[in-house]
Amino acid sequence: MINKLIVGNWKMNGNLSLVDEFSQTLDARVILGIPSVFIAYAHLKNPTMQIAAQDCSVYADFGAHTGEISAEMLSQVGCKYVIIGHSERRQTSNFDNQQNVFAKLQNVVKTGMTAIICIDESYPALVDNQTKEFLKTNLDKVCIAYEPLSAIGTGKVPSLKDISETLSKIKNTYFGVKTLYGGSVNVSNAKEILSVELVDGVLIGGASLKLSELNEIARLS
Ligand code: 13P
Prior knowledge:
About 40% of the residues lie in helices and about 20% in strands. By secondary structure, it is an alpha/beta fold. Helix 1 runs parallel beside helix 2 (about 40-45).
């Protein structure tokens, strides 16, 4: 099990004290997705920490877009990865339709960061042709995280066989792209999930808020 990606997604959780705590002793292998407002602070506290944003603007660079944060701005404050198209955003925000997720993908890759595109069970319908074409020539800068809706925050992980079969379909469809699994990953099940050959990494929600648990999972990678 070499070089599997361990990605945390705090979602809309955490505070500056938690950032302080993580910045001191987080395993260097972890990529931590924190609320954008904490990114610059976390980077100053620990410039070697691998930080992900949980979204970026559909608009490129700069402009009259009140409240938006561009990929370029995230990159400037030390962010290296951006999670895009998370199901919690696709479901609650019309702004994360296919076309806009594609625009975000281009913006992330243009800045030299890596995009983590989230898809659920309905993935063929979530990746349009232009995204597929883009993936073909940017495989080193994109991962796909398969997060079944039935597994997010529910404690119900699909069987390892199901995970493997779905990731196999995704890899076959999208030119061998790196595939992550997400949904109720925790310290008790991470070892067996990471042992699945096609699992190139995991995307962890709730359990990523517990430093000791996240570090323990990182040690398995
Ligand atoms: P949980 O690990 O809390 O199920 O969340 C998964 C997720 O949505 C990560 O992006």
